[in-house]
Amino acid sequence: MSYRPDESNDQIYAEGAWLQGAIVTGVLYGVVIVLSAMCWRSLWPRAQSHGTGYKKNRFFLFYVAFLFVVGTIYVAFNSQITQMGFIDNRLYPGGPGAYEEATSSPPLNTAFVVSDWCADLLMIWRCTVVYKNTRIYYVIVGLGSTLFLGALVTGTLWLVIVSTPAQSESGWMSFSLLFPYLCFSLVINIFISLLTVLRLLYHRRRISRVLGLGHGAIYASFASIIIESAAIYSICSLLYLIPYTLNNPISYAFMQLLGEAQVIAPLLIIYRVSEGKAWTNHSTTLMEESAIRLRRPSDFPKPSPPSAPLNVEISFHQEITRDDSIRSPKSSHPMEPTEAHANHDPFGRAV
Prior knowledge:
Layout: H1 9-48, H2 54-88, H3 96-102, H4 106-130, H5 137-162, H6 167-170, H7 178-211, H8 213-219, H9 222-228, H10 231-245, H11 251-274, H12 283-293, H13 337-342
Helix pairs in contact: 1-2, 1-3, 1-11, 2-3, 2-4, 2-11, 4-5, 4-7, 4-11, 5-7, 7-8, 7-10, 10-11
C-alpha cells in the first residue's frame, strides 16, 4: 500500500527542495553561532581595553551582535513558515511548495534584506582597505558607494512591494520582484570580490618575485582570497540565481541557504580582522617598504671600484728611562769602584 500523496513529481520535488533547504539552513545557523562566539571571544578583550583601535573593535563587536540577531530572526521565521506550509496548511492547493511560494513573511524578508545590506557594506569596506594608498582608491570608494546605494533602493522597493496585499496574487518569489534585486546584489558581490582578488593576487606576485613563491602565499593564500572577497556569499548567490532562471525548484533550497550565507561571510572577515590575519590599512605601506628592503642583490646599485692602495709607513722609536727610586736587582758582575761608591746601600753592598 502506497502512502504517496496525489501530487505530480514536480510538486513533490519542489516540496522536497523547500524542506531540505530549511534543514540545511538550520545547520548553517549552527555555523553562525560558532563564528559569532569566536568573534566575541576575540573582540571582547580588545573592546574593553583602551588600546589602539579599541573603538573599531567595539564597532565590530556591535556589528557581530547585530548580525547574530538578524541571522537568528531569519532562521526562526524560516522554520515557522516551513511548519505552516508542511503541517498547518498541508492541504493548500498545490501542496506545501505552492504555499511556501505564495506566502510572505515580513520579518523573514526584512532579515534577509538587512543581512544582505550588512554583507555588501563589509565587502565594499574590505575592498577600499585593500586599495588603500593607491591611485584608484577614490574611484573604488565612489563606485562602491554607488553600488550600495542601488542595492539599498532596490531592496527597499522589494520590501515595500511584497508587503502589499497584491503580492499574494503573484507570490513573493515573483520574477519581477525578487530577481532584479538579487541580480543587482550579485553584481555587487562578483564585481567587488573580483577587485579584491585582483589586488591580493597583485601583491602576491610582487612579494613572490622578491622573496620567492613560498613567501607570497602568506599575503594571498587561497583561504584568505576566499574569505577576504566573501566568495562564499557570491557562490551561494549564483547557486540560487542560475537554477531560478532555469525555473528549477532546487532554487528554493539555495534561496534559504543564501540568507545564512550572508551572515557567515562577514563573520569570517571580522574574525580574520580581529585576529590580525586580514589585510589592514598599513599593509600596502609595509609591502612597499618590504619590497625596498628585501630587493634582490641585482637590484641594488653596484659598488664603485676600489681606489689605489694607500701605503702608510709607521716608525716606532724606543725611549728608555730609569727611575732611581726603584732598586734594581742584584747584579752578578762587580761594578767599577767609583760607581760602587756612588751607589752604596745601607748594608755596604754595591748595587
